[in-house]
Write a structure and sequence with these properties.
Domain Transketolase-like pyrimidine-binding: 466-640
Strand order of the largest sheet: 11-10-12-13-15-14-20
Largest sheet: 7 strands, mixed
Enzyme class: oxidoreductase
Protein name: 3-methyl-2-oxobutanoate dehydrogenase (2-methylpropanoyl-transferring)
Pfam families: E1_dh, Transket_pyr, Transketolase_C
Oligomer: single chain
Structural class: alpha/beta
Function: E1 component of the 2-oxoglutarate dehydrogenase (OGDH) complex which catalyzes the decarboxylation of 2-oxoglutarate, the first step in the conversion of 2-oxoglutarate to succinyl-CoA and CO(2).
Distance between the termini: 79 Å
Length: 800
């Protein structure tokens, strides 16, 4: 690891020792890039992306990075990871080889490509580590710019810890809010909207966020003239520079090959950021990319000879080397020895990582060969499969299991003890492989929603009928009083208490630090929630309407939903995304894009409460749990009357537990959210026609009906209709797959299952638009009647 340089306290010998150590880290990192590329090109790894050309500025940045600080960067930051001790060279190569063996790749368990780092925030049981005692790295994602949204939240947490004394008891998460959130981004990615949104948000919030821009003048093959106005992002951002009485940024610009200036700038910039709690931007220019963008191609294809010559001349390591000689920090012989040792060290680490990866598979390879050979005694043609597998010197797990599964298929007509042994081994390995490659979609720790005690709502003679919004308001009030970690923010949430008054009066009661208005910036509202949650707080991040969640879907899908999975459970972010949708008026305020969420947000819970009491129970569960969720409140339910539970802040709703709202014998209807009221109204009319409808509310779509209430109903009624506000083939197709395939409901049908969905377009404005584009009482009534007619036309004559 690197050490800070304090010229006033160091002797020249100490200074030389630190500089030579830094040069050693830079050389090792460069060699890791060179060797890593070679490993991909020789076929040992699938793909590689490296941080060559960025070594020296990352060493300078690492000197200012302290225990408790956070990084939210991207896949060029390997030197920083080596310099801070977040990663070793061997771990770097283990990730390149996608080694899923426990401990080999401590950042992602073999699930992410190289240079995607993370530190362990969460223990096996889901409890938090002491985050003040480690250098924290939030899990990287590949989409360039995607790290910026989360960065805002990581920095904002420091502001809350510093200013809200009620959080002082959270000793494992902050030391008086002194932590800086470090972000990195490439110059080309500053063209993305999430970058500008995050820069503006941090300037408004005045938070300790330090963003470094690695500027090598290209974005893959596209030069800066096509990327950035004036070809200079710090020039573009000059208006953000703070002035007396006008808060903003401190902006610094420094050449990426100038070691002493980099150390000086980073020390100064981070001190300002940490002490004054203001955002800083360090634009690191004149960087190079010696090996090009990645292993997918060569930069010689698109860079001119002059540019390539310039990059050789301005390589940051060569420039540091020359400065060390000129400044008498080291001799030519000393430097040559450092470079030689770096090559040997990295080569040995690479070999060790590769051998450990193969060694983890070889026992399985041998077992598979022996088991297949055993069956070959009865079925000689299988001997070739065993021989082919044995001939692969560096077999990977895929090749082992391709052979095993083929042997199982080809021996289907052979019954023997040897085949039974192979099958038993294969089933045992399925458990191990699930853990290696499929586990931890959710944190599944001791605070999992599935482990929260279920408490029923209580009512007494004093329970009042109130507007649905008042149920929510009472729920939020009780929980904010109970748990100081809770914070809420969003557009119009604070001063007016949100557009539907769920938070009315609560900002005045709990203060602006806990209940806060934001600008119109959906991506960084989500990022604000992710960062806060990663630092131990309990954020409610509000998106005003479900339609607007599309603006933030990249952040939720790429980052939040995949966090537990891509870190194999060592990080978590229990964000509650609060929004409202379903029926209201018009194209932009009647959103039910549920299939889009189902396809994008696996790893989150998707709650679709039918009324505000159920919503409150879900919030009560989520406030006590540690997994992320989206809660979609019914837009047309805020002023409908509901009875206020006396335990409004305590009762809970189990996520994934479906509920039978009305029992029936003729047909099962599954629906959710606002559509359930439509179904219930239709059921009343159908009862007059002698048709008994069983209505099921799954309550959550992720997870869906874990107790299989739907199929139990279907076994009685033998008919299924799914009523859905999403587009045709949207969430209704998901529900059919769950009920018919997963729950095996197909075997209980005596007729074709049906779906009744919205039209393929968004609903036009007005009540007529709603009636003719989303399922109505008439639509539901006639759809069910038609299904009964199809089954018994004599009893139920045709309507049309």
């Amino acid at each position: 690891m690197t050490n800070a340089i304090n010229a006033s306290e160091l002797s020249f010998n100490d200074f030389k020792s630190i500089v030579k150590s830094d040069y050693k880290i830079a050389c090792e990192s460069r060699q890791a890039s060179v060797l890593g590329r070679r490993e991909v090109l020789t076929g040992k790894a699938k793909f590689g992306i490296f941080g060559d050309g960025k070594e020296v500025p990352q060493i300078a940045m690492a000197k200012a990075f302290k225990n408790g600080d956070w990084r939210s960067g991207y896949y060029r930051d390997q030197t920083f990871a080596f310099a801070t001790g977040i990663s070793t060279i061997k771990e770097f190569f283990a990730q390149l080889y996608a080694n899923p063996t426990n401990g080999a790749d401590p950042f992602s368990g073999g699930r992410q490509m190289n240079c995607h780092f993370a530190t362990k925030s969460v223990n096996e049981d889901g409890s938090w580590n002491d985050l003040t005692q480690i250098k924290n790295c939030s899990s990287d994602i590949s989409p360039t710019g995607g790290q910026m949204a989360r960065l805002v939240g990581l920095a904002y947490a420091s502001k809350l810890f510093r200013k809200n004394r009620e959080l002082d008891y959270l000793k494992h998460f902050s030391v008086n809010g002194n932590e800086v959130a470090f972000g990195t981004i490439g110059n080309a990615s500053t063209s993305e909207g999430v970058f500008f949104e995050a820069i503006n948000a941090a300037g408004v919030l005045q938070i300790p966020m330090a963003i470094s821009i690695w500027d090598d003048a290209y974005g893959i093959s596209v030069p800066a003239k096509y990327q950035t106005t004036k070809e200079d992002i710090s020039e573009v951002l000059k208006g953000f520079q703070r002035e007396p009485g006008k808060p903003g940024y401190e902006i610094y610009k420094v050449n990426g090959w100038d070691y002493p200036s980099l150390c000086e700038v980073y020390e100064k910039a981070i001190n300002v950021c940490r002490d004054e709690h203001v955002p800083v931007l360090i634009h690191v220019t004149e960087l190079t990319q010696p090996q090009g963008h990645s292993t997918s191609g060569s930069h010689e294809r698109y860079k001119s000879k002059d540019r390539l010559s310039w990059e050789v001349e301005h390589d940051c390591i060569l420039k540091m080397r020359a400065w060390m000689l000129d400044s008498a920090v080291a001799t030519e012989e000393e430097i040559a020895e450092i470079e030689k040792e770096a090559k040997i060290f990295v080569r040995n680490a690479q070999k060790e990582a590769w051998n450990e990866f193969l060694d983890s598979i070889k026992p399985e390879q041998k077992q598979a060969i022996d088991l297949i050979s055993g069956i070959a005694k009865h079925q000689p043609e299988l001997a070739k499969i065993a021989a082919n597998l044995a001939s692969i010197a560096d077999a990977q797990r895929r090749e082992v299991f391709v052979a095993v599964r083929k042997a199982i298929r080809l021996s289907a007509n052979t019954r023997s003890a040897e085949r039974d042994e192979l099958l038993a081994w294969y089933k045992e390995q399925e458990v191990h492989n699930y853990d290696r490659y499929n586990s931890k979609l959710h944190t599944d720790g001791k605070e999992s929603p599935a482990k929260i005690a279920i408490i029923e709502p209580e009512y007494d003679e004093l329970s009042k009928m109130v507007d649905g919004r008042e149920v929510l308001n009472a729920c939020f009030n009780e929980n904010f009083a109970r748990d100081q970690r809770l914070v809420a923010f969003g557009e119009d949430l604070g001063n007016i208490g949100d557009v539907n008054q769920g938070f009315a009066g609560l900002q005045a009661k709990y203060g602006e630090l806990r209940i806060t208005d934001t600008g119109i910036r959906e991506m960084t509202i989500m990022g604000q929630g992710i960062g806060l949650a990663m630092r131990g707080l309990k954020p409610i991040a509000e998106i005003q309407y479900l339609d607007y969640l599309i603006f933030a879907l990249n952040v939720l899908s790429d980052d939040l939903a995949s966090l537990a999975y891509r870190t194999k459970g060592i990080q978590k972010a229990p964000v509650i995304v609060r929004t409202r949708g379903h029926r209201l008026e018009g194209i932009w305020h009647s959103g039910s894009p549920i299939s889009m969420l189902l396809g994008s947000l696996r790893g989150m819970h998707l709650c679709v409460p039918r009324n505000m009491t159920q919503a409150a129970g879900m919030y009560n569960t989520l406030f006590r749990a540690d997994e992320p969720a989206v809660v979609i409140e019914c837009l047309n339910g805020y002023r409908l009357k509901e009875k206020l539970p006396s335990n409004v802040g305590d009762f809970t709703v189990s996520l994934g537990k479906a509920e039978v709202l009305e029992e029936g014998t003729d047909i099962t209807v599954v629906s959710y959210g606002s559509s359930l009221r439509i179904v219930q109204e239709a059921a009343e009319e159908l009862a007059l026609l002698g048709i008994s409808v069983e209505i099921i509310d799954p309550q959550t779509l992720l997870p869906f009906d874990i107790d299989h209430i739907c199929v139990n109903s279907l076994s009685k009624t033998n008919k299924l209709l799914v009523v859905d506000e999403d587009v045709p083939g949207g969430a209704s197709a998901y529900i059919l797959q769950k009920v018919l395939e997963e729950q095996k409901g197909y075997f209980h049908l005596d007729g074709q299952p049906k779906t009744l969905s919205a039209k393929a377009h968004r609903p036009p404005f007005g009540s007529d638009g709603d009636y003719f584009s989303k399922p109505s009482v008439d639509d539901v009534t006639e759809a069910i009647y038609q299904m009964m007619h199809d089954a018994n036309p004599a009893k139920y004559p045709a309507l049309f």
